Amino acid sequence: MTPPLPPLAVAPACARTLADLLVALSAARALPKGQQLHGHLLKGGHLPAVASSHALLAHHLLTFYARCSLPELSLRAFLDLPAAPSPAAWSSLISSFAQNGLPEAAFDAFRRMLAAGVPATDRSIPPAAKAVAAAADSSRPPLAPHALHGLASKTPFAGDVFVGSAVLDMYAKCGNLADARRVFDEMPERNVVSWSALIGGYADAGMHPAALCIFRSALEEAVQVNDFTVSCIVRVCAAATLFELGAQVHARSIKTALDASPFVGSSLVSLYSKCGLVDCAYQVFSAAPERNLGIWNAVLIASAQHGHTSTAFERFTKMQNAGFRPNFITFLCLLTACSHAGLVDEGKRYFSLMKEYRIEPQVEHYAAMVDLLGRVGRITEALDLIESMPMEPPDSVWGALLMACRMFKDADTAAIAAKRLFETGSRSSGAHMLLSSTYAAAGRHVDAALARKAMRDAGIRKETGLSWLEAAGEVHTFVSNCRRHPRSSEIYNVLEKVGKKMAAAGYVADTSAVVKDVDRDEKCASLGYHSERLAIGLGLLIVPEGVPIRVMKNLRVCDDCHNAVKYLSKCTGRVVVLRDNRRFHRFEDGLCSCGDFW
User: Fold this and answer.
1) Structural contact between residues 363 and 424, judged by C-beta atoms closer than 8 angstroms
2) Beta strands in 362-473 (DSSP E)
3) CATH placement of domain 15-30+41-187
4) How confident is the model at residue 527 (pLDDT cuts 50, 70, 90)?
5) pLDDT level of residue 516 (50, 70, 90 thresholds)
6) pLDDT tier, 4 (very low <50, low <70, confident <90, very high otherwise)
7) How far apart are CA 241 and CA 477, in angstroms?
8) Which among 320, 279, 283, 315 has a CA at the least distance from the CA of 300?
């Protein structure tokens, strides 16, 4: 019988070798092996740290747990340090909290560091700035960004490019763009992080022309932009539906190999989807060499907005099989897909599935569920869901219910929804107009007039409906009955000619939503030249045959225009892709991709 082997003796190892091993395990994020080594250090008496060499081990252990997304264990490792932790150890603790979604803990650690007499350095200021930027507005002291900036300016690192970039990024993410721009202009040296932070700040604020201008300046100064910079600019192009410029940025990213980044990939998916080219969005997703949760969510919302509901469900299953854990955005995409297809049972199933992933439904999810129930006419059930919400329903939720009331001409519930919406302090012109048009659709023209009067008395102006079309590098914008375009006479002529063909094919204007109590001829005249029809009219003139006419609109397309564009596509043989503020509509041969459900 073979005798058992004696226990393996552990040869003494120098602290430097163990520290190098910890660094390697940190880089690989090898949690089980790192925990085994941690246990060895505890058993061997290397921790809690006493000697300076042991302090090095504790410091690397702190970093290891931070990279493994375990900030609580980073804190435990920090507590194993000698009584007076070094500035580097404090910086690592602050970074651990900041990088793992605990901004309040990070900033608290920064304050405790200063209270302990440890000066701020170029390693502790950037994570502290990140923590200030990530903190919720309600928990962030009002002057925290300026206080941290003031502290940084008094240190020897005031001119350091990394410190300056961190302060700039903090101001940008806090919405203080004037301060961010001043820091940028005063920096003695800038790097790609500085440029990207400023571009990202303007992009997040919706200041698209400014973001594009800064990007052009960066290229003129030969800045080697990174994937974050490109992602920001593509997001700007997507938000402004600047397809041609976005395609140019895509081409540049291919030449620099930045298109391989999942961050750039997710932005490109959004760009092509929002510009109505969903097949291109799918191609970008399929060709992505690396995928993260962001690009999965981007392709899910693209499928949802374009009415490809079954595709969205299939991709969600593939995402789960690929090992990705859905987040609150993922479920919002799925609920949107269900809403656009009227799939109540599936929507309820996904809403319940959130709890299995320990995700608490937020107001956006409730708004999507109210929208889903409302679209299929289950308005009472939608109202009951609102009343059961664990938080105060915001205007988005009441607005979804109000839209449903408009669709089903439920004027009484619309009045309740509008009253509750106005109690939230909302000054939305859309809500007033929805209430007015709901009354008009129900034949209650006196109430419709009173709703419009209440809007005027409150000093609220109706949001102007805009539609725009991009062609040959130029964006053409229209409002209803607009005659300011250089080719207005041609646009009206072509629409009149097509209108006669549409009437012969059976088109009859739906005047039920016209809020004014006037005769039918006046109602038809007010509908005939809505902004989207004028944009489509220009498209018929300048967009080549065989190329879809892509039009964007800032408001929901009205029932009559939706029906009219179906007839227009049938009579002209043209494909029209129309994006309103709710979804995409692809009109072809007299049919719409939404199935008349929007």
Assistant:
1) no
2) 467-471
3) 1.25.40
4) confident
5) low
6) very low
7) 12
8) 315
